[in-house]
Each structure stands twice: as structure tokens, then as C-alpha cells.
# Entry
Amino acid sequence: MIELKDVRKSFGDKTVLHSISAIMEPGKNNLIIGTSGSGKTVMMKIMIGLMSVDSGQVLYEGNDIARMSDDDLKKLRNQIGMLFQGSALFDSKTVEQNVMFPLDMFTNKTRREKIRRVNEVLDRVNIKEANRKFPAEISGGMKKRVALARAIVLNPKYLFCDEPNSGLDPQTSLVIDKLITEITKEFNITTVINTHDMNTVMESGDHIVYMHQGRKRWEGSSHEIVFSEDKDLNAFIFASEFLQKAKEMTVLEEQAQANVPTQGPAPAKPKRRGIF
Ligand SMILES: Nc1ncnc2c1ncn2[C@@H]1O[C@H](COP(=O)(O)OP(=O)(O)OP(=O)(O)O)[C@@H](O)[C@H]1O
Ligand SMILES: [Mg+2]
# Structure
């Protein structure tokens, strides 16, 4: 579990994070959403320790990263996987060499063990027979999958993904979301995802933090978001007229279901109703 306690951050006289407190839970996709400039990337950089806080704390399993010894910080870094915006693969390295890089850097495994682990994770993200290819020779969706394989190669306890779907078509985005969700559940990872993607929010938002102008404005699940009455959140999520109508229909349907008189025992409540 990662906990942010009263985190504040300014650049010069501009405050970009105003007293953020939030918990990122294990085995869940913890989504940070919000318009461009709302502070998502700064918050993520602070969580990974790439940026320091002005005040407040970031706790990993109760331990403040600002107070960790160099040794503990190194151990923590080995438990963190990161999927960067734009994949950030090394162009001059093959797929295999890219995924092997963290194993070369942080482990003493033999070459045979490393190859076995690389093939295991490439297989997990459904990449086959591409070990010898260079990033320029594979598609954007494949690059994301290779980057995801690299992010999980060290069996991370924490996985950070900054805009994992940027530049992908909606179908490929769903494949990536599904993979991240499966891996998160399978290995009980604390996954934090920055996203603008409406599909990601609806499909994989176990726990969502909505940022607005550097403040945490709303927090809840993908089901609860449909019923939120926050004006800015609605404008952000249900930006198109179509989505606004879909939301209204879902809310109406939920209300109708709640008002239908029933005979006998009440039927089990479905998890989701309406369009969402
Ligand atoms: N190193 C920096 N120096 C000064 N200002 C910065 C720095 N990094 C971020 N900012 C400012 O902090 C604010 C939040 O930026 P951030 O990158 O976190 O937004 P974001 O929510 O990730 O946006 P996007 O959706 O466009 O990625 C912005 O106003 C940005 O200009
Ligand atoms: Mg960002």
C-alpha cells in the first residue's frame, strides 16, 4: 500500500499540488485522472521519489520514502516497475535486450536464467517471435506490451503507468488495460495509472482519484463515478453529448430499478446497470 499524506508541491509561486492525501491499494488499479496540467505526472513522480515534496509524506507500507536509508531506497526501487508515456524503449537494443535491461542492472542471474525470465514475461504479454526485432520494427501496441514486459520483469510490488494508452487505437488500448488489470490481480501489485482514457476509467477503475487544479476533488470507483454529481468531474468524464446521455440513462435506469415494487425476496443487486 502507498499512502500520500498532506502532500504539497510548488514550482516558484505556482502551487501544483495542494494538500493531497490518498491511498493506493494493492491488487487494484488505482487511477489518477484529471485534465491536462492538473498535477497527475507530478504526483506520480513524487510517489516514485523522482521529485521531492515541499511538505507531507509518501509512505510505502508505512515507511516514509524521505526518511529511508540508501539501502532501503535501493530495495524499494527494485520493487517498482514503471511504464513510461511513449514506452521509452532503447532504440538501439532489441526487444529481448530491452526487457533484459533491468535484470542486467539489478540482478546477478546467469544469462540462461535471464533469457528464461525475458521469455516468460514476453509470453505473458503475448509477444512471440520478436526477441530479435528492434523497436522501430514493431507497432505502437507491441512497443507498449514490450515496455510492460520490461516493467514487470523484476516482479514489482508497485507498478506505475503514465498514460499507458497514449497514441493507441481504442481496441489496442483495451488489450493493454486488460493486461495491466490481469497482472495487477495475478501478482497483487499496487498499480497506479495516470490516464485521460474514458475506456480505462470505466473498464479498470477499481479506485479512482480525480484531480482538479492540483487538488483531489473526488475519489471512488468506476461504478460510483456514473452517479457523481460533481460538475467538473462530469464535464471531464462525460465530455461528449453521447456520453452525457448514456450517463443520464444509466442513472434513470438505476432509479427505476430501485423503485420497482417486488414480490417475494428482492433479486440480487447486479453490480452494474445501464450502459456502464
Ligand atoms: N519541473 C517543473 N517545473 C515547473 N513546473 C512544472 C514542472 N513539472 C510540472 N510543472 C507544472 O505543474 C503542473 C502540473 O503538471 P503535470 O505534468 O503534473 O500535469 P498532468 O496532469 O500530468 O498533465 P498532462 O495530462 O498534460 O500530462 C503544470 O502546470 C506544469 O506546468
Ligand atoms: Mg502528465
About this structure: The two ends are 28 Å apart (CA to CA). The longest helix spans residues 241-259. The mean pLDDT is 89.
